[in-house]
Amino acid sequence: MFAPRSAYLHIPFCHRRCFYCDFAVVPLGDRASAAAGAPGSATIAAYLELLQREIAASGGGPPLSTVYLGGGTPSLLSEDQVANLLGQLHRRHGLAPGCEVTLELDPASFDETRLRGYLSAGVNRVSLGGQSFDDSVLAGLGRRHRRHDLMQAISWLRAAMEQRELRSWSLDLIQAVPAVAGASAPPDLAAWQVQLQQAIATGAPHLSVYELTLEPGTVFGRRAQRGQLQLPDDDLAADQLELTSACLGAAGYGRYEVSNYALPGHASRHNRVYWSGADWWAFGLGATSCLGGQRLARPRTREAYAAWVQQLEARPHATSTPSRLPLDERLLVGLRRREGVLLGSLLAQAGLGQGASLLDALGRQLQHERDAGLLLLEGNRWRLSDPAGLGLSNAVLRSLLRALGPVGSEPTAAGPQGPVP
Ligand code: SF4
Q: Best substitution site from 21, 172, 300 to test ligand 1's pocket, by max atoms within 8 Å of Cβ?
């Protein structure tokens, strides 16, 4: 029997698809809502039924200590729908006392009454998809909300914190964004500093700052292919990363993972599960679970997911072949954590503990990166330095994998389903 203490639930619905997004998302239109008779309501209800069936068919285990409802736009669900999902989890797995229950909310997709309803349903942590305080940037990213919506949502979250109805909340920001309409260049470093200052001024106890990545098949991916997307050059992107770390550090935020910063006591317990090597349940279209150290990705379309759930109900252990997390991802995940990674154990798990020449080559490369100030060795744990190593994490990883030779070149699997911008 598996014993994860965490569960991720994927709610795939959004009003529209943002220009950079390649998540497993079902756009329902700007007027969509879960209210009876509203556009999209029947689609949402049918999906939630499937999700409940998947939860019911999952194996039991110890009570959950973290639950994360991500998407998509989970704030398209009603308060009752969120309460029902949490009730289903409680019945199937149990929720431990003090369980961290996070709900992703998008500005302009909920109001204060709905927020109160979510909190009454058991949500105690919110992740707010703000992305930017600048209307032209939001429009350029294809976001539906604007600064006014974001500030309103923040005021409700702050009020809920003051009244101790909400335990913590996080704000997402995107850095390294392209030039907006009518501009001749991407926003510069000074503009990014203004964004960071505004984020700090909100008092958000947790900030997730993601660097924009280009994904094939997205609006941005197609524009880039046609040469119509003006992105920051590598120097500006690196300067932004460094500025983020410096500004947030000076404001009291600890960087506990490459993109995540928290005031003391506000690191996301759920996020840390993904990076700790522990198992987690996942439910829903496109979601990836990790059970017994093995990844299992669900199908990304509603039809295929419905068939998958049916198969799960018929034969709970035969839905598909799980895949083991590749060495490169385990290495990267470990090095990015503030507590670092025990390389000896990791290599032994990968069956690489015996090759003396291999370990010598890796040892030389580790020392090289350490001399360059990119890696730190604390006790017997290695981690990337902040900000230099974290800013160049992919390059450091490539150099270590090169040192491992062919055994280090396993393909990378899809990453853990984490907070979604
Ligand atoms: S970025 Fe978020 S809000 Fe935008 S389409 Fe993707 S999941 Fe939906």
A: 21
Residue 413, pLDDT score: 32
Q: Output the residue whose Cα is nearest ligand 1's atom 7.
A: 72
Q: For residue 26, how far is its CA from the centre of ligand 1 (angstroms)?
A: 10
Nearest CA owner, ligand 1 atom 2: 421
Residues of the chain within CATH 3.30.750.200 domain(s) are 6-276
What is the per-residue pLDDT for 337? 78
**Helix-helix angle 79-92:112-121, to 10 degrees:** 10
- What residues does 175 pair with on adjacent strands? 211
> What was the pLDDT predicted at 389?
87
* Of 18, 26, 30, 149, best ligand 1 pocket probe by most atoms within 8 Å of the beta carbon: 18
CA distance 295 to 290: 4
First to last CA, the chain: 33
Dist. CA 348–CA 78, nearest whole Å: 47
Low-confidence ranges of the chain (pLDDT < 50): 319, 410-421
Q: What is the pLDDT of residue 266?
A: 98
Residue 210, pLDDT score: 95
Mutate to test the pocket of ligand 1, among 20, 127, 174, 420 (most ligand atoms within 8 A of CB): 420
Name every residue whose Cβ is closer than 8 Å to that of residue 147 and which is 6 or more positions away in sequence. 133, 134, 135, 138
Q: How many Cβ atoms from other residues are within 10 Å of residue 36's Cβ?
A: 9
Write the single-letter amino acid at 100: E
Give the model confidence (pLDDT) of 232-262 as tens digits.
Answer: 999 999 999 999 999 999 999 999 988 999 9
The token pair that represents 18 in the structure block: 């943002």
Please give the radius of gyration of the chain, using alpha carbons only, rounded to the nearest integer.
21
Tell the residue number behind the tokens 């299992």, with chain if given: 296
Can you tell me which atom of ligand 1 is nearest the CA of 71?
A: 7
Residue 335 is predicted with a pLDDT of 85
CA of 421 to the centre of ligand 1 (A): 6
The dihedral region occupied by 379, where left means phi > 0, alpha psi between -120 and 50, and beta the remainder, is: left
CATH code at 6-276: 3.30.750.200
Residue 25 CA to ligand 1 centre (angstroms): 7
Euclidean distance between CA atoms 400 and 403, whole angstroms:
5
pLDDT at residue 354, rounded to an integer? 56
